[in-house]
């Protein structure tokens, strides 16, 4: 993925930043956010991207996840409000593989699958495109460790 032009330095660095020890970690976060920003439509919120990463993480760890788990895992924001509230459906619908009324052109990274042990439960799963994006996220993180 082509990154934007680096900023040119007009003068040497003359002060040490209080964040100097965090450069690698910040570069990793930046690389992941850049990847997502370039891969997702502009209408996608950070919370929708977060929902995708939660699903990918849980599945990578070998755990099942259902939509209501997103609310529990994400918890509350800095203002005491749930990260995923009653509108949780809008937080993941855009990421699905099937078009919906609100999202006629979904991203296609997630799909729903009926739980074989409980037909009432719908499990969130990654599509092949979702697995590919999860791998790109890990790759971007790993590569940013070596370039900062």
What does this structure look like?
The protein has five helices and two strands; from the N terminus they run ααααββα. It has a two-stranded antiparallel sheet with strand order 1-2. Helix 1 runs antiparallel to helix 5. By secondary structure, it is mainly alpha-helical. The mean pLDDT is 87.
Count, helices: 5
Could you give the count of β-strands?
2
Strand content: 5-15%
Give me the side-by-side strand order of the main sheet: 1-2
Taking the sheet with the most strands, its summary is: 2 strands, antiparallel
The end-to-end span amounts to 17 Å
Q: What low-confidence regions span 5 or more consecutive residues with pLDDT below 50?
A: none
Q: Any idea what the radius of gyration is?
A: 18 Å
Give a brief outline of the structure.
With 148 residues, the chain is mostly helical. The chain has helices at 23-39, 46-60, 67-74, 88-93, 128-147, and strands spanning 110-115, 118-126. The longest helix has 20 residues, at 128-147.
Search tags:
148 residues, 5 helices, single chain, elongated, two-stranded antiparallel sheet, 2 strands, mainly alpha
Task: Please outline the helices and strands.
Elements: H1 23-39, H2 46-60, H3 67-74, H4 88-93, E1 110-115, E2 118-126, H5 128-147
Antiparallel strand pairs: 1-2
Helix pairs in contact: 1-5
